[in-house]
Amino acid sequence: MPRLIGAAQSVVNDPETITTFTSSGTFTTKPATTAIEYLVVAGGGGGGSNLAGGGGAGGFLSGSSNPVSGGSPYPITVGAGGAGGNAYNSSGSEGSNGTNSVLGTPSAITSTGGGGGASSGLFGRNSTDASNGGSGGGTGHCRSDMPDYPASAGTGVSGQGNPGGTNNTTPVPGTNRGGSGSGGGGAGGTGADGNETTFPSPGNADGGAGGTGSPSSISGSNLFYAGGGGGGARREGTGGAGGSSVGGNGGGYHGGTPPSTPPGNQATSGVANRGGGGGGDGSGTGPPGGTYQGGAGGSGVVIVKEPGSGVSASSCWDLRQVYRQIEADEWV
Question: Is 319 a domain residue?
């Protein structure tokens, strides 16, 4: 008579499963799965160039009970980060928006790409508006005596992110007033406004910090996602820090007359597969396509957690069969 597994010995049919998508693909549920936990983060926006704002973080969405059918395939889209602005001096260029990430279940979950950071020209000329997104991009420096005043920060999508910061300044009569780039918004907070300074001497201004990201432990580790990019610095100021070490840092001064001492740092990109915004470029001159430009946004990610099917015995038996198995010492 074969040995049978009964009440005294149980088995786990299927453990909890975590599936991470760092690029687009197809997610197929396990046969017994009826609902999933998820994290969907879009690509971050790129930082602008020349006294520029940081890129906004990609939209952040999470949930614990998204209905699905067992054994079914669902499309996954992982959004790319936006490119950083690449121009200089009197005509900077904006960062590009990140692209959406999508969990294509019957109740589809779509996170919106982060907004690109705005640019600014020499002494706050030719300033642009930042772009809207999952979180909005930050503005560059914009002065009230210029025709482009005021520049607007990008807005965020409700439930996914926050707006970027702004730096609209009014010059003091008889002075040449300027400032730095603002931080892009993050999933956990608004980007910080850029800082102001009055010229001449020394004319430094630190960039605004990127908005904080949001934490998630769905992967098994408690990590931050979707922090905003820091704003670019004016002259020897320091570029704004990226939000939650996920957004890119803002750049520093990079050339011109007088030259930077020491040379400023290049704006950095948002962290890949964490949806951070790119850092905004600092001030100074340099050729288009050269070393100094806005940082790119970080790519997004989609993470899915399926529950285990629990603990169960091997089968069900009638009492007579159980008695015979016990009597034969074959019931374990």
Answer: no
